[in-house]
Amino acid sequence: MKSAIGSLLLIIFTSCSSADTNDQEGINGIDDLKTRQYAIQGQQLYLQHCSNCHQEDGTGLNRLIPPLRQADYMMNDVNRTLYIIRKGLNGSITVNNVEYNQPMPGNNNLTPIEIAQIGTYIYNIWGNDYGLITPEKVNEALNQ
Hints:
mainly alpha, two-stranded antiparallel ribbon, Cytochrome Bc1 Complex, Chain D, domain 2, 144 residues
């Protein structure tokens, strides 16, 4: 009986930490030191500001909240994504051929460097390899 309970707990803890482990492996695979530092900070900010809706592993929430992981909408326009992080989004969008129409609130309190860190994180894990997103790039996106 104790063995069964121990096995069950091991399965639960392993499954709960798999997204974090995969993210950590992705971050550790970033060669450039500054990009890795931004991604580490971005991971914390993502967990604080984004993961409630988009989930820790970036898979979204069924047909209600779009995924960020392997999302064509996100990958097609980095500046648009950075703008949406700050300003939010209203209206319908199509992500990976699925329509979403749930408003996303903006994060007006995030600074350009924080948005750059979140952007660096989401664009360099989950199989992505974009590189560093700078605060200057964020400012460019916000001023379009």
